[in-house]
């Protein structure tokens, strides 16, 4: 039984190895485009959190602007040539998403740092998005683009 399981698992693993980074890239793109669109159309459940965090900006302008930036990041993840700048923007955006933990701590934690609220959990899950971006950056590295340029030059 163990051998059958291992055989099936390793076949699955080989398939996943071939496609996993692209699946991650598309998944992140979907999240960014979807969440950005919600902000653009004033439907984001995170709108109030953004408003409390960057209270010095007018929310009716800043939240849709943030949404446009998120959609651009999502679209950039779908265009392989744009991945280096897109990953930079994504990581910059992710760093900013942790601001509420410091600016509106009571909204993020019932007891800091071990009892996050639903909002706090929403922010903490961004560690997964950051990890996904780092995996993508690992594949789309200098060697990838050098090989791509060589292939295009032929």
Detailed description of the structure:
The chain is mainly alpha-helical and 154 residues long. Helices cover 80% and strands 3% of the residues. It contains nine helices and two strands, in the order H-H-H-H-H-H-E-E-H-H-H. The chain has helices at 2-40, 47-53, 59-78, 83-97, 99-103, 105-108, 118-124, 126-139, 142-153, and strands spanning 109-111, 115-116. It has a two-stranded antiparallel sheet with strand order 1-2. Strand 1 (109-111) and strand 2 (115-116) form a beta hairpin.
Low-confidence stretches: none
Mean pLDDT score: 93
Distance between the termini: 49 Å
With strands numbered from the N-terminus, the spatial order across the biggest sheet is 1-2
- Give the helix/strand class: mainly alpha
Total beta strands: 2
Radius of gyration: 19 Å
| Most strands sheet | 2 strands, antiparallel
Instruction: Figure out the total of helices.
Output: 9
Proportion of helical residues: over 70%
- What gross morphology would you assign? globular
Order of helices and strands: HHHHHHEEHHH
Beta-strand fraction estimate: under 5%
